[in-house]
Design brief:
The protein folds into 5 domains: 70 residues, no CATH class; 106 residues, Nucleic acid-binding proteins (OB fold (Dihydrolipoamide Acetyltransferase, E2P)), CATH 2.40.50.140; 273 residues, no CATH class; 34 residues, no CATH class; 243 residues, Metallo-beta-lactamase, Chain A. Strand 9 and strand 10 form a beta hairpin. Strands 16-15-13-11-10-9-24-25 form an 8-stranded mixed beta sheet. A 7-stranded mixed beta sheet has the order 17-18-19-20-21-22-23. A 5-stranded mixed β-barrel has the order 1-2-3-5-4. Helix content is 46%, strand content 16%. It has 27 helices and 25 strands. The model has no long low-confidence stretch (mean pLDDT 86). With 766 residues, it is α/β, with parallel strands linked by helices.
Length: 766
């Protein structure tokens, strides 16, 4: 059964790597060849034929579900304009200071799942109302196509939306038309039950420092966990413990199973009627179901329930299967239920860890339990390293120590006391519930002291950029060599192999060459410039009122994935939010030697003014500031720092948001220095820039436009696009290409991240 499940998974995985939903002629040919081979060889090679058949079925099953999900995406006629939509709020709304986020299941004029935000406006009358799951609303919405930033090291939001089966995203427009049509009926749905639990526990948990974590452990709602706690858990790789997971469901159902068995055996009569293991399995199954239920049967908890159900069902029906057979059944059921699980980090980590545990518990069985506990923990930490690096491009060197302490704290203190506190609250014993919650909270406080101590070590966090499945396969191979049986005498090979892989340079840039990466930051600008030994950051993207900023979500992950910890220079071209917004995050996370800017008054740190004539040389590459000129009286966009980067053969011009006035000034006073093979489009391609005289002076063969997908400013202007085209200039846009890499060396080479890593579920440009 395990082999069949793995082949089914392989078929699903192969389809998930496709860059288009359509089946190519080659794929059709291969498909029919496999079907023919299965038919011909079934009698003689039955096992092989069945395995090939399950692989094909996995591929077909994934294609059917993917097609179904993509067909629910909203048609363009409903996008980017106000539209009245009727639907029901599903799942728990997440309320923050600035907005309320919720999932809206639309029923009219179309059907689909929408991820929405209702923003709090300064006017009290325009604040988001209290939203309740199950309520039906008519809302004036503005929707947009699923879209995310596509950069090395960044979170793939588009894949996440596809995995969550979201048809479109958007926000609620302020309007009298926004009305609650019906409140949820008295039928107690899962989400309604969870909402009632959250509401009842809120007065008590608000008093606890870690109330958000306790709330997450009870009902799986992570929205109340503070950012400080998230960062702490993430830095020590214990985020999996702070929400309801397979570990928690397994522990609680296992505890109930053992407790019921123990009590049942006290009655000989009952034991003769029904064996203790069977009645324990029934109660274990029920407890797993109830815990998954109050967690909303999310994908991780649903997966954990299936795994627990397989084990308990084998006990109830007295089918003593090999543990790997049970593992295979659970894997197959999870994939049949939701093949999109392969896009979930939790799916891979949970099944991978369970496999490692199954292997680990069979080792050193003659050793004391404490020895085996430490061994399994170290085994898990080493074996999960490849997947952790693959999914997060980072790891915690001290995570084995953090998990060794945190797992018992969460499993045997915090989670049980949190659930007991919730039961006491609904039993009317509020005083006892407060004591239970206080002890759980205090345990987390003491744990946080230890985690903060571990976090302060510089060597704790390391980063690595995975670029291919070959890297992942090699990394997993190293991990399995490290945990191979002692008798094979191969373990010593894993250390040198791991060192070579982790510390091998990602890119090698030669002297007199420069790599200029324009990151996909939506409607904004952030470019990373790398020579052989130096790094410069030109602008830092935007920061929004909600707290989301591009420095944290795009630039920092990219720099960490490239092993960059020090920035020789940061240039902030001017003071607009979409250029300076992410700066604080960069200064918090990286050592910066020098800042150049045209707006020193907006930066709370010693800076130097950008001035025409400033220049320096790094590794044979010349950098020169062409604007602003102290002899002019330009303001705002026209004061943007303009940077020219030159190798011996080619140049690129980074222009910020300059407009016609500055372009005319540059053409008049610095025309001989403007000529460049590559141009970063001024002001995101606005019609206020890219004058013909300026383009004649620069004479680029390639222009890069950094702008948001279907942004409200309509950048780049169609008139400017036509002007570029009439000048025979090749155009690359971050909205279509994602991150754009330009290498100026013996030739000009460019890469487009969105197209190089294209997948069928990602947005495509027309």
């Amino acid at each position: 059964m395990l082999i069949y499940a793995l082949n089914f998974l392989l078929g699903i995985g192969l389809f998930s790597l496709k860059n288009t939903l359509q089946i190519s002629p080659v794929e059709w040919g291969l498909f029919f060849t496999l079907i023919l081979a299965i038919s011909i060889s079934f009698k003689r090679y039955k096992a092989l034929s069945l395995n090939l058949a399950t692989l094909v079925l996995g591929f077909v099953w994934m294609s059917l579900i993917s097609t179904q999900v993509l067909n629910t995406q909203i048609k363009d006629i409903y996008l980017n304009k106000p539209i009245l939509i009727t639907g029901e709020i599903v799942e728990l709304p997440e309320k923050t200071t600035h907005n309320t986020k919720f999932i809206f299941k639309a029923s009219s004029p179309f059907q689909g799942r929408l991820k929405l935000a209702w923003y709090n406006r300064p006017d009290e009358l325009k604040k988001a109302p209290n939203l309740h799951t199950g309520d039906t609303w008519r809302l004036l919405l503005k929707l947009k196509h699923n879209n995310g930033y596509q950069n090395l090291g960044g979170f793939d939001y588009e894949k996440w939306l596809f995995y969550k089966r979201i048809s479109a995203t958007g926000y609620v427009r302020s309007s009298p038309a926004n009305q609650r049509i019906n409140t949820a009926d008295k039928t107690l749905s899962t989400d309604r039950l969870r909402q009632n639990i959250r509401h009842s526990l809120a007065p008590i948990l608000e008093k606890q420092e870690f109330g958000g974590v306790i709330n997450a452990l009870i009902i799986g709602d992570r929205s109340l966990i503070t950012n400080k706690h998230w960062l702490l858990f993430r830095a020590t790789n214990i985020t999996h413990l702070s929400v309801i997971s397979g570990l928690h469901i397994g522990l609680i159902s296992g505890f109930v199973f053992l407790l019921v068995q123990f009590l049942w055996r006290y009655s000989t009569r009952l034991s003769l009627m029904v064996p203790a293991p069977i009645i324990g399995a029934y109660f274990g199954l029920i407890s797993a179901f109830l815990y998954a239920l109050i967690a909303g049967f999310s994908v991780p908890t649903g997966r954990a329930f299936i795994m627990a159900s397989v084990v308990f069902a084998s006990i109830i029906f007295k089918r003593h299967h090999n543990v790997w057979q049970l593992y295979g059944v659970a894997l197959l059921l999870v994939l049949l239920n939701n093949p999109l699980s392969v896009f979930s980090v939790g799916f891979w980590l949970s099944f991978y860890v369970v496999a490692i545990i199954i292997y680990g518990v069979r080792q050193y069985q003659s050793k004391p339990w404490f020895y085996r506990l430490i061994y399994i923990q170290l085994l898990i930490s080493i074996a999960t390293l490849p997947l952790t690096v693959w999914f997060f491009s980072s790891g915690s060197a001290l995570s084995p120590i953090a998990n060794l302490i945190a797992i018992p704290v969460f499993s045997f203190i915090v989670t049980p006391l949190s659930l007991i506190g919730a039961l006491l609250t609904f039993s009317g014993l509020s005083y006892l519930s407060e004591i239970s919650f206080s002890i759980a909270n205090q345990a987390l406080i003491y744990l946080s002291y230890m985690l903060e101590y571990l976090q302060q070590f510089d060597f704790n966090q390391w980063h690595y950029a995975q670029t291919s499945l070959i890297d992942l396969t090699l990394f997993i191979g190293i991990a399995f060599i490290a945990i191979s049986p002692k008798a094979l005498k191969l373990r010593w090979l894993s250390a040198p192999m791991l060192v070579l892989m982790l510390f091998a340079p990602n890119d090698y840039i030669e002297d007199n060459s420069v790599l200029i990466t324009t990151l996909d930051v939506g409607q904004g600008l952030a470019s990373v410039v790398q020579t052989k030994n130096h790094t410069l950051l030109f602008d830092t993207g935007a920061k929004y009122r909600s707290g989301f900023n591009l420095g944290d979500s795009v630039i920092t992950p990219y720099l960490q994935a490239k092993h960059i910890r020090h920035l020789d220079k940061v240039i902030i071209s001017h003071g607009d939010n979409d250029h300076i917004g992410g700066l604080d995050n960069i200064l918090d996370n990286f050592k910066v030697s020098e800042i150049l800017t045209s707006v020193p008054e907006k930066i709370q740190r010693t800076t130097l003014d950008c001035q025409t004539g400033q220049n320096w040389q790094w590794d044979g590459v010349i950098f020169e500031i062409l604007n602003p000129d102290k002899n002019t009286y330009f303001k705002d966009n026209n004061t943007s720092c303009v940077l020219k980067i030159s190798t011996s053969k080619y140049s690129m011009l980074l222009t910020g948001d300059i407009e016609r006035k500055t372009e005319r000034h540059l053409v008049k006073n610095n025309k001989e220095k403007l000529k460049s093979a590559v141009l970063l489009s001024p002001h995101h391609g606005s019609k206020t820039s890219s004058t013909q005289a300026f383009l004649d002076a620069v004479s680029p063969s390639l222009v890069i436009v950094s702008s948001g997908f279907k942004n409200r400013f309509r950048h780049p202007s169609q008139a400017i696009i036509q002007r570029y085209q009439s000048n025979n200039i090749k155009i690359l846009q971050t909205s279509c290409s994602g991150q754009i890499d330009i290498l100026l060396s013996n030739n000009i080479e460019f890469k487009e991240y969105r197209r190089d890593f294209s997948r069928y579920y990602l947005r495509q440009c027309e």
